């Protein structure tokens, strides 16, 4: 076991796969020589050569389009979009091509592809360095959508994603690349060194896709969260004293409904938390599934705490980010209902 | 917006009133003729056959200017082969040429039968390639097993020349139980991996950059295979045309980038996609990619350039772009009526003629074919196509469906069916 940040864990996952599978290949903007703007691929080109790890032109459609062509031939490309906010030019290739290739060719061609993209806010990234576009992927049949919340899961899920036979959108919450985040921007920044999930095996292991993790057992209310919000939810629950059960979904599509259902049936209450904007966000799907599966167990309306329905602001970051105050208010509200 | 000529604050130049007539005006390209006008191809320059050289396989883009702006043609106005490209081709056996003729006749017979089948409601949709048969039929015969085309929906020619079973081709068009794609895809969106034919998508241009990725993978894994990308003139306007040319230029993978310029994108004249650029081939030169423009209705020219381009890619000299200059004789699709936007007789006026007629005339002039044999071959091929069509229709058509199991909807969305799809399949009753 080693101590790793999320960046190091992701790099380790790619290192393990590059070493163990000659069909794995990495590319994206600044991914090669420089090692990525977030250092996630640092040192990998030097170790594996530029036929395995290389830089691309600034063209997201090309990055994913090339990867679809390679994956169709049996390679396993793991490509990077520098920020999730910049995936839109690749949206055609992701949703119309990668997602549908297996289905439309009846399995003649497949797309074992991973598209990594740093996501989420909390870093004063403004409009185009903070977005959380997961709902734009969870709506697409044929994709898998994964978002880790800690180094251990990040490595295990990325290895599982690279080994998966289908296209995986792998969202990396950049706010927690270097350490967990309580949601209080004025608190001393934390590091993964002190966090149990910062202990990461150096060798190959995987965390299965489609399986949620219960990261705090409780009986009062079920909190559904993923990415950065898992930590904000945990910090908030610790302050409120409410005995919440916090579920880190880890994979949004396919959703681990069994774990969600078992928890809500036990607690009778549910709060959904995500950074993404509220309307038609992934929270809407979660709430719909919970009310359909658990209606007779619910003792309060299912609430959601989300980003406001506005573009992500710069100076007003902490008025926008769904932080501890808003989460605490929602928890209190469902408990009083 | 204030009128700039009235600005007197000293910060902006004052435009004299007499220059107002010189203000910017936009160009809106128009086709040479509309339905109420006679066909007019006077603006199309058809260079003499046989005047362009055969470049070395390792030619650079800068050496390709004449080839990209001119037109490689072998058959002259009397359908005799002339010039360096004819020499490059060398002696082509009568059997090989008759095979080419049969491929094209077969394609045209399929088009006719399937157009009628659509009119009869036996299939919901069809796309003909009339007039463009030489390009795909001939190019495919120059590829090797394992090479991969990334086609558009107007390249069933590739399947015909790859000898793809007609039962599967028609089964796909009828979405019946012979359909290899289980009724999931619109007719003509074929997929035939074993025949070097990548899955067709309705989204234009996407396959062009995927082909570059495939070719890169071929190079990385050392398979010795190449990719062939295909796009129409209209779709060269798509982002992925640029993405493909750029990345092909950066990584130099083994690929032939084909542009089929048939002058029309549904109702839109090719000038709208081309703007003021000289040819589509010329665009590649800006990316540092060698390019040629070719008479797409000249079977010999298609054969010579296909061999040259494929050999160039296979020998590791990197990408090459070929613009095949042709004309879309038929409607865009069975949902289209070209008499609404172009002259009815435009196809007859097309200066490069018909690819089947030209090859036939050449073969007859060689003494390797005759009018009688042609009529007989047409009849035989039509009989063969009709026989397969009847056999395929016995498995159901759109008017007489023998439906595929609805549970097919849920298969192959993923390698393994996730829980939510299992629930939905159960909800459907399967």
UniProtKB/TrEMBL annotation, chain A:
<dbReference type="Pfam" id="PF02779">
    <property type="entry name" value="Transket_pyr"/>
</dbReference>
<feature type="domain" description="Transketolase-like pyrimidine-binding">
    <location>
        <begin position="4"/>
        <end position="179"/>
    </location>
</feature>
<dbReference type="InterPro" id="IPR009014">
    <property type="entry name" value="Transketo_C/PFOR_II"/>
</dbReference>
<dbReference type="InterPro" id="IPR029061">
    <property type="entry name" value="THDP-binding"/>
</dbReference>
<protein>
    <recommendedName>
        <fullName>3-methyl-2-oxobutanoate dehydrogenase (2-methylpropanoyl-transferring)</fullName>
        <ecNumber>1.2.4.4</ecNumber>
    </recommendedName>
</protein>
<dbReference type="Pfam" id="PF02780">
    <property type="entry name" value="Transketolase_C"/>
</dbReference>
<dbReference type="InterPro" id="IPR033248">
    <property type="entry name" value="Transketolase_C"/>
</dbReference>
<keyword id="KW-0560">Oxidoreductase</keyword>
<dbReference type="InterPro" id="IPR005475">
    <property type="entry name" value="Transketolase-like_Pyr-bd"/>
</dbReference>
UniProtKB/TrEMBL annotation, chain B:
<comment type="function">
    <text>The branched-chain alpha-keto dehydrogenase complex catalyzes the overall conversion of alpha-keto acids to acyl-CoA and CO(2). It contains multiple copies of three enzymatic components: branched-chain alpha-keto acid decarboxylase (E1), lipoamide acyltransferase (E2) and lipoamide dehydrogenase (E3).</text>
</comment>
<protein>
    <recommendedName>
        <fullName>2-oxoisovalerate dehydrogenase subunit alpha</fullName>
        <ecNumber>1.2.4.4</ecNumber>
    </recommendedName>
</protein>
<keyword id="KW-0786">Thiamine pyrophosphate</keyword>
<dbReference type="Pfam" id="PF00676">
    <property type="entry name" value="E1_dh"/>
</dbReference>
<dbReference type="InterPro" id="IPR001017">
    <property type="entry name" value="DH_E1"/>
</dbReference>
<keyword id="KW-0560">Oxidoreductase</keyword>
<comment type="similarity">
    <text>Belongs to the BCKDHA family.</text>
</comment>
<feature type="region of interest" description="Disordered">
    <location>
        <begin position="1"/>
        <end position="22"/>
    </location>
</feature>
<dbReference type="InterPro" id="IPR050771">
    <property type="entry name" value="Alpha-ketoacid_DH_E1_comp"/>
</dbReference>
<feature type="domain" description="Dehydrogenase E1 component">
    <location>
        <begin position="104"/>
        <end position="395"/>
    </location>
</feature>
<dbReference type="InterPro" id="IPR029061">
    <property type="entry name" value="THDP-binding"/>
</dbReference>
């Amino acid at each position: 076991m080693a101590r790793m940040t999320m960046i190091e864990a992701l790099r380790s996952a790619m290192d393990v796969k590059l070493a163990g599978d000659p069909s794995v290949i990495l590319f994206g903007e600044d991914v090669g020589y420089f090692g990525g703007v977030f250092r996630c691929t640092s040192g990998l080109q030097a170790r594996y050569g530029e036929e395995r790890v290389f830089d691309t032109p600034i063209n997201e459609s090309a990055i994913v389009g090339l990867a679809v062509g390679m994956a169709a031939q049996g390679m396993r490309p793991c490509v990077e979009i520098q920020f999730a906010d910049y995936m839109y030019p690749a949206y055609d290739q992701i949703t119309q091509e990668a997602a549908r290739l297996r289905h439309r060719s009846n399995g003649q061609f497949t797309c074992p592809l991973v598209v990594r993209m740093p996501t989420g806010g909390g870093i004063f990234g403004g409009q185009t360095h903070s977005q959380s576009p997961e709902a734009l992927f969870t709506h697409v049949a044929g994709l898998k959508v994964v978002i880790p919340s800690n180094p251990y899961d990040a490595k295990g899920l990325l290895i599982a994603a690279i080994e998966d036979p289908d296209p995986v959108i792998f969202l990396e919450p950049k706010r927690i690349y270097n350490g967990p985040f309580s949601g209080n921007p004025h608190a001393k920044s934390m590091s993964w060194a002190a966090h149990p999930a910062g202990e990461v095996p150096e060798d190959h292991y995987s965390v299965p896709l489609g399986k949620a993790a219960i990261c705090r057992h409780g009986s009062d209310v079920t909190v559904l969260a993923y990415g950065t919000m898992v930590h904000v939810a945990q910090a908030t629950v610790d302050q409120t004293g409410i005995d919440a059960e916090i579920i880190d979904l880890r994979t949004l599509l396919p959703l681990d409904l069994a774990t969600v259902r078992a928890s809500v049936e036990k607690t009778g209450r549910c709060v959904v938390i995500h950074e993404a904007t509220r309307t038609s966000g992934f929270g809407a799907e979660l709430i719909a599934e919970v009310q359909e599966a658990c209606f007779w167990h619910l003792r309060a309306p299912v609430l959601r705490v989300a980003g406001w329905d506005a573009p992500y602001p710069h100076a007003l970051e902490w008025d926008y980010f769904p932080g501890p105050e808003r989460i605490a208010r929602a928890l209190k509200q469902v408990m009083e209902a | 917006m204030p009128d700039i000529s009235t600005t007197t604050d000293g910060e902006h130049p004052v435009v004299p009133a007499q220059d107002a007539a010189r203000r910017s005006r936009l160009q809106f390209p128009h086709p040479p003729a509309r339905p109420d006008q006679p066909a007019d191809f006077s603006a199309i320059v058809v260079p003499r056959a046989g005047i362009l050289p055969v470049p070395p396989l390792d030619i650079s883009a800068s050496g390709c200017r004449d080839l990209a702006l001119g037109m490689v043609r072998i058959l002259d106005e009397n359908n005799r082969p002339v010039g360096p490209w004819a020499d490059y081709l060398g002696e082509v056996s009568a059997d090989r040429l008759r095979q080419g003729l049969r491929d094209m006749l077969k394609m045209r017979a399929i088009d006719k039968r399937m157009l009628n089948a659509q009119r009869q409601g036996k299939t919901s949709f069809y796309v003909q390639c009339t007039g463009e048969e030489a390009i795909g039929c001939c190019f495919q015969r120059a590829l090797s097993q394992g090479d991969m085309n990334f086609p558009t929906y107007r390249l069933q020619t590739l399947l015909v020349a790859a000898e793809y079973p007609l039962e599967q081709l028609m089964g796909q068009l009828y979405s019946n139980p012979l359909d290899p794609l289980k009724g999931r895809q619109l007719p003509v969106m074929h997929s035939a991996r074993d025949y070097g034919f990548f899955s067709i998508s309705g989204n234009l241009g996407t396959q062009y950059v995927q082909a570059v990725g495939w070719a890169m993978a071929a190079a990385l894994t050392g398979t010795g295979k190449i990719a062939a990308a295909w796009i129409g003139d209209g779709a060269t306007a798509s982002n992925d045309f640029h993405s493909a040319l750029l990345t092909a230029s950066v990584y130099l993978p083994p690929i032939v980038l084909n542009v089929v310029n048939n002058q029309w994108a549904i109702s839109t004249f090719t000038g709208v996609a081309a703007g003021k650029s000289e040819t589509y081939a010329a665009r590649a030169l800006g990316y540092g990619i060698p390019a040629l423009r070719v008479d797409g209705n000249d079977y010999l020219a298609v054969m010579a350039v296909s061999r040259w381009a494929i050999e160039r890619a296979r020998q590791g000299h990197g990408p090459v772009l070929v613009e095949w200059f042709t004309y879309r004789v038929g409607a865009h699709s069975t949902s289209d009526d070209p008499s609404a936007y172009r002259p009815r007789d435009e196809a007859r006026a097309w200066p490069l003629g018909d690819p089947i007629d030209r090859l036939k005339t050449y073969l007859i002039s060689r003494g390797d074919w005759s009018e009688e044999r042609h009529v007989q071959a047409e009849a035989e091929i039509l009989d063969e196509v009709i026989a397969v069509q009847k056999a395929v229709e016995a498995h159901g058509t759109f008017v007489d469906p023998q439906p595929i199991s609805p549970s097919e909807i849920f298969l192959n969305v993923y390698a393994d069916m996730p829980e939510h799809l299992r629930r939905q399949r159960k909800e459907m009753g399967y």
